[in-house]
Amino acid sequence: MAEVKSVVLQLKPDDEVAVALRDIQAGETLVPFGPLATTAIPFGHKVALRPLEQGEVIHRLGQPIGLATAAIPAGAHVHLHNMGFEASMAGRAIGTRLSNAPVRLPSDIPTFDGYLRADGKVGTRNYVGVLTSVNCSALVARMIADHFRDPRRLLPYPGVDGVVALTHKSGCSVADGTMSMKMLRRTLAGYARHPNFSGALLVGLGCEDNQIDQLIDEEQLELGDDLAKLVMQETGGTRSSISRGIEMVEAMLEKAARKQRQRVPASEIMVGLQCGGSDSFSGISANPALGAAVDRLVACGGTAILAETPEIYGAENLLLERAVSKEVGERLIGLLEWWDDYTSREPQGFDNNPSPGNKAGGLTTILEKSLGAVAKGGTSNLVEVYGYGRPIDKRGLVFMDSPGFDPMSATGQVACGANLIAFTTGRGSCFGCRPAPSIKLATNSEMYARMEEDMDINCGSILDGDRSIDEMGEAIFREMIATASGKATKSELLGYGDDEFAPWHVNAWL
């Protein structure tokens, strides 16, 4: 007799809902459970396994994700029409569940081939960067970098990955001392000293609020062979600046070409953790599998940066329980309180965070989305909490404040020092983040097959029963090492990574 495959997945024995593993028609039996589907249940969406009363708390993965806003019969579709959000459904106890996971001995730590820089940091790529102080210098920066898009112009510089222009829409009409100006300067400085850049050129107009000399002074940067500046109003205008900039980059390329990869321990990997275009399976497959890879990296002495503060809201207890000190936990709570006030001006506050794509994929509330997002951090202890783009100075799992907008969040992580990005997606986000390579992790096999040209790893094999979360975590960890050693990711091959540079802007334009 042929085996009848399950059509729904209950994640924890006491969960009131299960997730549809395919489109379910009304009247189908919810194998392996008894109820019949009373309505059609889309792939990835939730279905009630028993009757739910209005006001009853609904759980997924054993955690609260919302309240029934109406009576829900067994077998009914559970989504926006009958489940809502209520603030403070999770606790905030600090440091009650610290991990004592073993740390690997130096002899057991894998190695990768990276670029050891003069300051002791290690790069996974060898680019030259062209950065802008203001939007007015964006064209010049792009034209300088475009000169080197012709592969023949890079032939004299073997081992160089290319020239990257990273432009933005700010730098003027933003007052000194504001949060936005401080974050912009901090971000630009983080990129200027990033280990994936062998050298960087700062290009400005000359009259902008974000003066290059002030940026250099405030962020304690030093001009030299690895960092140069170009001011258009002092150089003679657009064409003169492009010509001079090309000459300056060529000098940096000569030095970059002399750099060679060398064997270094995996402890030098600093990975930024991202999820975008999430679906109901993100918290079941790709995110916990990435968490398993993070636990391996942390055991090796490496660093993982969890971010996107609005996307941990409601599941912060899962991080606070692992905070190594009261001070670390209170810093995380402080960020959430700032965001609670910041979003209070929005029509629906925090709970307007799930995007239309998230909701179409089966996610209903911010609590449900946050559960999956936090899973990217594995089970390691939370050792520190940082502001946006601040240099990371501790190893292990850390948290960086940022919006949930992926380009803005990843930009901050790279400014912090991330030399690698791991990005999970259920709907199929197309993303890159130069100069840091971005590994794309698909949550389900259907999307992976449809968008294989953009995806590096199919975590849908967990749902298919072919791999466990731990086995997939090992595969992701090995992919991190291979990518750090120079293996090109799909997003790199496609040319993503320039337009995704997006420093966080908070204050009003003047």
- The coarse silhouette is globular
Strand order of the largest sheet: 17-18-16-15-19-20-21
**Cα-based radius of gyration, to the nearest Å:** 24 Å
User: What would the average pLDDT be, to the nearest integer?
Assistant: 92
Commentary on this structure:
With 510 residues, the protein is an alpha/beta fold. It contains 14 helices and 21 strands. It has helices at 138-146, 179-192, 212-218, 232-235, 238-256, 286-299, 317-320, 326-342, 356-360, 366-374, 406-416, 445-450, 469-484, 490-494; strands spanning 8-9, 17-20, 46-48, 57-60, 63-68, 77-78, 83-84, 111-116, 122-123, 127-132, 162-166, 197-204, 227-231, 262-265, 270-275, 303-306, 382-386, 396-400, 420-425, 438-442, 457-458. Helix 1 (138-146) crosses helix 5 and helix 6 (286-299) packs across helix 13 (469-484). The longest helix is centred in the middle third of the chain and has 19 residues, at 238-256. The chain is globular. The chain starts with 7 loop residues before the first strand and ends in a 16-residue tail after the last helix. The model has no long low-confidence stretch (mean pLDDT 92).
Pick out its properties.
single chain; 510 residues; alpha/beta; seven-stranded parallel sheet; four-stranded antiparallel sheet; 27% helix
